[in-house]
Amino acid sequence: MASSAPPPRPLVHVLMYHQVGHFDEPRAHRASYCHVDRFRAQMAFLKIAGYRVIGIGEALEGLYGGGPLPRRSVVLSFDDGYRNFYEHAYPILRDHGYPALLFAVSGRIGATSDWLDGSRAAALMGAPQLREIRAGGVAIGAHSVTHPRLSRLAPAAAAAEVGGSKAALEDLLGMPVETFAYPYGDYNEMVRDCVAAASFRAAFTCSRGPANSAPHPLEIPRKAVSWGDSLLGLWWKLALKNRRKDRYA
After folding, report:
1. pLDDT at 143 over 60
2. How far apart are CA 203 and CA 221, in angstroms?
3. What does pTM read for this prediction?
4. What CA–CA distances, in Å, run from 27 to 74, 116, 117, 227?
5. What is the pLDDT of residue 240?
6. Which residues pair with 93 in a beta bridge?
7. Domains of the chain by range and CATH?
8. HSE-up of residue 166 (Cα within 13 Å, Cβ side)
C-alpha cells in the first residue's frame, strides 16, 4: 500500500521594513518608509488575525531543521539599522512581545545611510542601541560593510564586504551573527558563494514570496511592506500573495 504524502509545511512569511517613524507621504521608494501609526496598527492586526510572530531561529529550525512551525508564522525583518527603528518600532515590538530581525551595515554604525541620496540619508543606530535591542529580543544580522551593490564588485571585494560585516558585528555584540541580507536585493552566484564562505546560516533577498519557496537557504524571499499598504493590503500579502517572484537587483 502506497504511503500518503506528508502534509504541507505551514508557510513562513518574512516581512521586510526599512524606516519606521513620522514621514510625509513619499513620492518614491515607498517600500522604504512606514508611518509609525500604520506600523502600530499592523502589529496589532497580526495578533488579532491569528498570526504568530516568531524569531528567526525558530523559523530556520522549522524550515531547514525539521522543527515544528506554527500556522500563520511571520518573521519581522528590518533593513539598515535606522535610529528610528529604536525610537519608534522597537517600543511597539516590546509592547507586543514580538521578536524581530534587524540587518545592520557594520561600517556605518552611528553614522548615516550615506549610500542614499543626500536628502534621503537618515541616522543609523550606534553600538549601544544595537546591543540594547539585541538583549531585548531583536536578532542582528549583517547587511555588508558599506551597503554596495555586491554583484558589481570583484570577488575579493565582495567577500570583504560580506565577511567583514559578520566579523565586525560579532565583535560588537559578542555573539554569533548567523544571517545576512543582500543590499538592494542584489546578488548572483558569486555573491552567494561569498555568503556561504562566510558561514552564514541563511541569507535574505528582495525576491517576493513565502520563505518556504526559497531555492536555497541563502536565497530566502521576503514580502516588502510599502507605505500605502492598508491592513487589507497587508492581509492580502500574507494570505494570497504566495507565488514566488524573483528579483536580483
Report:
1. yes
2. 9
3. 0.95
4. 29, 15, 14, 10
5. 85
6. none
7. 12-239 (3.20.20.370)
8. 22
